[in-house]
Amino acid sequence: MTGHGPGGNARTKELMSVMFARILVFCVSAGLLAACSNAVREGGESVAPDLDGACDRALDYDLDFDRFDEVAQQIAHATGCFIEVDDMAAAGKVRPNAVQGHMTPREAVYVAIEGTALSVVENEPDRIAVGKR
Question: What is the mean pLDDT for each group of 10 consecutive residues in the chain (133 residues)?
Fold first, then answer.
C-alpha cells in the first residue's frame, strides 16, 4: 500500500527512483540516452502531455526505420492517433531514433524525433502535428 501510512511517501519516492534508474540503464545499454532522457523525466514522468485521447494510450513499440515518415505511419496505423507532418518530403529525409518499449504514441513521436530537425508543434487528444524546429 504505497503512499499510505507512515513511510508511504518515502517508499513511493524510492520506487520512483528505482524505476527511473532502470529506464536510464536501459537507455544507456540501448544507446538511446539522448532520446530517452527527454522522453522520460526523473520519476518516470513523461514530457509528452497526456490529453486522454487516441495518442495517449500506451502500447509496446519496436520501430527502427530509416525515415521519420515510416515511423509516423506505423504509429498512426496501430493507434488511430493522427500524425500530421507539415512537410512530408522533408520528414522522409529525417533519420529518426529507434522507438522501443512501452509508451504512448505521443511519447513514441517525441522519442523518434529527439535530436533531429523536427519537433512537435501542436498536441491535441487524437492528433500530433510535427514540423521543422
Answer: 53 53 47 44 64 91 95 93 91 94 96 95 96 90
